[in-house]
Amino acid sequence: MNQPTRILQLTDLHLFSEEQTKLIGFNPYQSLGKIMALVSKSIAKTPPSLVALTGDVSQDYSLKSYETAAKIFGNFPCSIAATMGNHDHYSTFTKIFGDPSQDSNKMFDLDNWRIIFLNSHWPDHVSGKLAQEELDF
């Protein structure tokens, strides 16, 4: 019997370089810690096939916030796929997670599935959008 394909998908982490910094009254590191405690229990027997970080990893564009996310999720015995959201910073993001515009960082084949990640980052805007080249892809 085939095992199910499991994907751990997290979005909108909004991490800062300083772990005590709050965003609208919440500490993103404390929230992530609580989520990871729940995740650890649920995947103890069956780890995911892929960890998907689907945008807004960082709130302050700091290298440290991206490094922290990579460190936390780098302990999983599977690939990490990350795509940018409207709050991510292109050059800092790519140093840690690779260039989200490259096909190799947009498509992941898992068993009978092809997972496609589209980048909604819109430079110099708070909101996000899917550019025509993303839709064409």
Write a short abstract of this structure.
The chain has 137 residues and is α/β, with parallel strands linked by helices. The chain has 4 helices and 5 strands, in the order βαβαβαββα.
Q: How would you explain this protein's 3D organization?
A:
The structure is a single chain. With 137 residues, the protein is α/β, with parallel strands linked by helices. It contains four helices and five strands. It has helices at residues 28-42, 63-73, 90-97, 132-136; strands at 7-10, 50-54, 79-83, 107-110, 113-116. It has a three-stranded parallel β-sheet with strand order 1-2-3, with no helix packed on it. Strands 4-5 form a two-stranded antiparallel sheet. Helix 1 (28-42) links the parallel strand 1 and strand 2. The radius of gyration is 15 Å and the shape is globular. It starts with 6 loop residues before the first strand and ends with a helix. The model has no long low-confidence stretch (mean pLDDT 90).
